[in-house]
Amino acid sequence: xxxxxxxxxxxxxxxxxxxxxxxxxxxxxxxxxxxxxxxxxxxxxxxxxxxxxxxxxxxxxxxxxxxxxxxxxxxxxxxxxxxxxxxxxxxxxxxxxxxxxxxxxxxxxxxxxxxxxxxxxxxxxxxxxxxxxxxxxxxxxxxxxxxxxxxxxxxxxxxxxxxxxxxxxxxxxxxxxxxxxxxxxxxxxxxxxxxxxxxxxxxxxxxxxxxxxxxxxxxxxxxxx
Amino acid sequence: xxxxxxxxxxxxxxxxxxxxxxxxxxxxxxxxxxxxxxxxxxxxxxxxxxxxxxxxxxxxxxxxxxxxxxxxxxxxxxxxxxxxxxxxxxxxxxxxxxxxxxxxxxxxxxxxxxxxxxxxxxxxxxxxxxxxxxxxxxxxxxxxxxxxxxxxxxxxxxxxxxxxxxxxxxxxxxxxxxxxxxxxxxxxxxxxxxxxxxxxxxxxxxxxxxxxxxxxxxxxxxxxxxxxxxxxxxxxxxxxxxxxxxxxxxxxxxxxxxxxxxxxxxxxxxxxxxxxxxxxxxxxxxxxxxxxxxxxxxxxxxxxxxxxxxxxxxxxxxxxxxxxxxxxxxxxxxxxxxxxxxxxxxxxxxxxx
Lengths: 225, 353
Known about the structure:
The complex is a heterodimer.
Chain A: H1 2-5, H2 9-28, H3 32-35, H4 38-42, H5 44-59, H6 66-98, E1 115-123, E2 126-131, H7 142-145, H8 148-159, H9 163-180, E3 186-193, H10 199-203, E4 212-220
Antiparallel strand pairs in A: 1-2, 1-3, 3-4
Helix pairs in contact in A: 2-6, 5-6
Chain B: H1 2-18, E1 21-24, H2 26-48, H3 52-55, H4 72-76, H5 82-101, H6 105-120, H7 129-143, H8 152-158, E2 166-168, H9 170-189, H10 203-209, H11 226-242, H12 246-255, H13 262-269, H14 273-290, H15 296-304, E3 316-317, H16 327-341
Antiparallel strand pairs in B: 1-2, 1-3
């Protein structure tokens, strides 16, 4: 502890704290995963945002269409990352070791085209729903699937579909469903995608009518057990 | 050039001076207890939902996903196996409990951090924003003397559970900075037209309808009386987050109150930290009630504890007497230390209270 009593210690401490502060601030800036992730830019949500932003800019006297705005933002993002990457590099090891990373983009672009996970089993030649989110009737494995970590994990498939993550999750779900339903011959896992309605249409009594299934995976019940 | 250099020296001296403040350890002790309880509940909720072997075990051993084994503790334990996951979870339960009761000082905080980080660095898609806030807090607890009071360490040292022993205040300042950066960064990420000015401020309406997050049917927010309230809440949230950096200006004005000046006096006329914190508390209470994001609100409230300073009269600067000083003597030593050796422009005994 002699170091802490050395007259230079307050200056050394000030330098170390300054490093921490810089690390915190620099690593809180958007990184490549947020700025230039092609998967995210392809989602319906991102397309809607781009369309609305382009319309707003056009109304403000800077005529631009969705594609033009996308190109401009993509190239601005590239330019930003050429500065952000070398700026963040010296702090990565520190943040990796201490867990003092900052990245919270909560609801940056609220989902307007959600995707719900649906799980079904086939018994006696008929498909039967096993799990539907927020359903008391089809509530198989609800304790796990509605834990906040699982919900967040599933919600990611609407924001930027990642094939390997989805396939692994679908296989795990099918294996569990098959194990718990010995009479089932097949298990089906898929995403129900729909558009959330704006308030005036909900208030008028409408319900989403454009729903469709995506990324359907069907497993023979024997195989995944 | 000479003027620039002297400005740098002045700034550096002020920075060193700011980091030399000491204060009673009550706020940091409360922060430690709250963080430990939140981390403990996060681990217990995984056990209760039977998710330990689902999310923290690799797909090769029956888990949900292929996981990273980069963390040194995971490599040491032989990968993401069920045995490794339970070893980490078991250690986490013991360590978070020790942290809550304040036994083991910084070492406990460091071990808790490494264990919690080893678990939650398994896969980016399986972590939440609250995990980052927990690991950030644990690192700040490694840096802080958080067991100076309200702890078993204190009991072993003094025979009592509480103590007026003074601790460095800068870890508490870093907690406040963390909070400001979190809000500011998230505000700057919110560039969607449904958040930003000029749009219809409908962001929260859409969030409330999302099946991933909502706890119950929120379609009533489409009602003609409720929807405008969500628009108002959206606007308040966005501006509050984007302008969070101004909280540092408020602190600066309070810290340098003795210098006077019209702007400083105007800023100090009311305690602006209170409305800022009140909006934050309402935001997190709202999240807690309608949205399921795990312990996110609780961990945020834990950070808010550091906005509550220990009694300002006892805050002092570094000095040989300050270490282990009792409350009654610390005030007098602070004045003596500050007036005799301080080169700072801040008034003696002032701190970020």
